[in-house]
Description:
The protein is an alpha+beta fold. It has helices at residues 24-27, 44-55, 57-62, 75-84, 98-102, 137-149; strands at 13-16, 21-23, 33-37, 66-71, 90-93, 106-107, 112-113, 116-120, 126-131, 153-154, 160-161.
Amino acid sequence: MQIKLHTKAPNFTAASTAGSTFELDRDAAGQPLVLYFYPKDFTPVCTLEACEFKSTFDFFRNLNIKVLGVSKDSIETHLKFKEAYELPYDLLADPEGEVASLYDAYMPMIKFTKRVTYLLNEKHEVVYISNNIFEDKKGIEDMITSLKAHSLQNTSRQKLAFS
């Protein structure tokens, strides 16, 4: 399935390092989020990407934007990865690539999760996509620049409103 800008992101369920099952429409209802897909924990480029999200985490948190990483790794591996790099956000396990497939981030022929990042608004509409197989530091920087450039408005419930 190809995900396009300004379309509703598909709902999904996945095991989380938070110790529960995460469901997009239930656990992030009305909340914007960054959903980034990556190939594998502890690999050099994936570690750099995870740490880039760590270093920019306060920016996203200050805008009430949840950050979630998704790969095929198990929860056990995710927990070790999260602890080793002190990641302040949760990771989701997608062992069969089902969630990645919903988000056009999976290559079934080689069973590989692509490096794709989505920014979803509070209605879970896709408002930003970055797709770079080799690294995504520039994509993260561009997303932050884009968020800073948007005219952001807080609703009475302190939610981020953007298009």
